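Ops channel
N.P.: pipeline sanity check, posting one input/output pair.
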């Protein structure tokens, strides 16, 4: 069973996060996006990104190069968002993060731009982060200026260094994941990962079904403040006969 939930949180008036998925007998797609921009521009950017990328993959999924399909789909979305932003004063400067999984049997490619995250839980019962944030805090961590503990409460943790739609060209990070012996996969925006620890995330997901896990994770994040929009998707890892849930 797939778990999907997006919540406005406790503080924001609008939800600029978007979630999307497509499941079939041949391949699956799961995506989260965290939009930014004035008025409702962030919501427009995040929704458009997911729509364009999923449609691109559906049209080109027979190509054997999963990385190229995913990268090209994201670049198409970047172009559409950038052009729409350039043509409208109301949408000027809008952009979005994107983290998306393209899964065929036990092969999965993960792509990200920005600071939304992909995690996996493996057979050793360990929660591992697949993606790497494109953020100021991550840069400070990389050069040793701050510690992991400092990063969790850093005042500039919301500053991202790469986004979809803010420039004519975009650089996409791609990761290969062999799903053999992977129990669960998790996608989330930083509204969740900023407030919920790895151990809390692991404990909830490993003890509950995917749908219940999403609700419990969102509720936990909101109990800790819920200052941002919160989105999460939890789905099965290794492809097994008793895990096939097909939705067209």
């Amino acid at each position: 069973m797939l778990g999907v939930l997006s919540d406005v949180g406790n503080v924001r008036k609008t939800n600029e996060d978007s979630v999307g998925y497509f499941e079939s007998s041949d391949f699956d797609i799961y995506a989260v996006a965290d939009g930014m921009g004035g008025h409702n521009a962030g919501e427009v950017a995040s929704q458009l990104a997911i729509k364009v990328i999923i449609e691109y993959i559906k049209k080109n999924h027979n190509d054997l190069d999963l990385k190229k399909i995913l990268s090209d789909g994201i670049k198409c979305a970047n172009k559409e968002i950038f052009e729409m932003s350039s043509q409208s004063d109301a949408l000027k400067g809008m952009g979005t993060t994107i983290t998306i999984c393209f899964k065929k049997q036990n092969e999965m490619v993960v792509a990200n731009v920005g600071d939304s995250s992909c995690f996996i839980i493996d057979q050793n019962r360990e929660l591992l982060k697949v993606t790497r944030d494109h953020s100021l805090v991550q840069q400070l961590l990389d050069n040793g200026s701050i510690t992991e503990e400092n990063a969790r409460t850093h005042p500039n943790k919301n500053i991202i260094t790469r986004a979809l739609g803010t420039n004519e060209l975009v650089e996409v990070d791609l990761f290969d994941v062999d799903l053999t012996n992977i129990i669960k996969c998790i996608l989330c925006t930083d509204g969740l990962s900023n407030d919920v620890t790895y151990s809390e995330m692991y404990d909830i997901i490993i003890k509950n079904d995917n749908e219940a896990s999403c609700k419990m994770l969102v509720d936990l994040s909101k109990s800790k403040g819920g200052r941002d929009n919160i989105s999460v998707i939890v789905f099965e890892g290794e492809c097994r006969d008793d895990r096939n849930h097909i939705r067209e």
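N.P.: looks fine end to end. The longest strand covers residues 28-36.
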